């Protein structure tokens, strides 16, 4: 089969090397008050696998100084939506892969659902996300005290999260989680209705590490990249 691909590449004027380098574009969605630089370890792993900057899309979203001000509505959505659309439109394979951390997981999932592009996403990797909600945010509409926990936020059973429940976000879906996550497990429990909140429905697999909330992003870079291959 490889010889057939090489022959086709030569017929259309491409070198076998150029043909081999066509791969899914990657979208990296950072967490609340973070920045694209939080993905530096993941970028290094992507570069080691031959990815270039033109194949990596890292939207910069949200306030960097007010964590409780950010939610999943309006200005937070736009950079993520544009990155996903640009990645799809510029993909030589016709597919993209998405890796999100923390609130970036739910933002990315929301945009895949809203745009109706799950068929264009080959792999979705959610790291330390809270698709089932944060117990520290309360159960909607009770004890919801800021935007991050509100109607468009991460309180358990918020209208935002209920709207995503059960949706398919990609052909392959993975979660990376921890029982030492100081954000997802802030109340002493990581479970929402008996399931770890970082787990995603329709998962292909889930992986557990003895790492904190931010270490799950920075210290699992090799695993993240292996999952999108």
Brief write-up:
The protein has 229 residues and is α/β, with parallel strands linked by helices. The chain has eight helices and ten strands.
Characterization of the model:
It contains eight helices and ten strands. The protein has 229 residues and is of the alpha/beta class. The strands form three sheets. It has a six-stranded parallel β-sheet, with helices on one face. The protein has a two-stranded parallel sheet with strand order 5-6. A two-stranded antiparallel sheet has the order 8-9. Helix 3 crosses helix 8 and helix 4 crosses helix 5. The longest helix has 13 residues. The protein is globular, with a radius of gyration of 18 Å. The N terminus is likely disordered.
Q: How large, in whole angstroms, is the Cα Rg? A: 18 Å
Shape: globular
Low-confidence stretches: 1-20
Average of the residue pLDDT scores: 92
Major beta sheet summary? 6 strands, parallel
Spatial order of the strands in the main sheet?
2-1-3-4-7-10
Q: What order do the SSEs take from the amino end to the carboxyl end, as H and E?
A: HHEHEHEHEEEHEEEEHH
What is the overall number of helices?
Answer: 8
Span of the ends, CA to CA: 19 Å
- Quantity of strands, as a count: 10
Percent range of helical residues: 25-40%
The SS-based structural class is alpha/beta
Into which percentage range does the β-strand content fall? 15-25%
């Amino acid at each position: 089969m490889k010889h057939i691909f090489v022959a086709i590449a030569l017929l259309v004027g491409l070198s076998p090397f150029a043909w081999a380098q066509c791969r899914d574009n990657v979208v990296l969605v950072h967490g609340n008050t973070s920045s694209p630089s939080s993905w530096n370890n993941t970028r290094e792993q992507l570069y080691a696998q031959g990815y270039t900057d033109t194949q990596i899309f890292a939207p910069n979203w949200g306030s960097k100084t007010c964590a409780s001000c950010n939610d999943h509505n309006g200005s937070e959505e736009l950079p993520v939506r544009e990155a996903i659309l640009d990645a799809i439109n510029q993909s030589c394979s016709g597919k993209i892969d998405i890796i999100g951390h923390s609130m970036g997981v739910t933002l990315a999932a929301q945009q895949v659902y809203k745009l109706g592009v799950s068929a264009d996403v080959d792999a979705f990797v959610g790291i330390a996300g809270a698709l089932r909600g944060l117990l520290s945010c309360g159960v909607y509409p009770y004890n919801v005290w800021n935007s991050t926990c509100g109607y468009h936020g991460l309180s358990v059973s918020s209208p935002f999260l209920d709207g995503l429940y059960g949706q398919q976000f990609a052909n392959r879906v993975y979660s990376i989680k921890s029982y030492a996550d100081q954000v997802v497990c802030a109340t002493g429990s990581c479970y929402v209705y008996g399931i770890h909140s970082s787990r995603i429905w329709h998962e292909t697999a889930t992986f557990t590490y003895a790492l904190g909330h931010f270490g799950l992003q920075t210290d699992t870079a090799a695993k993240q990249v292996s999952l999108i291959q």
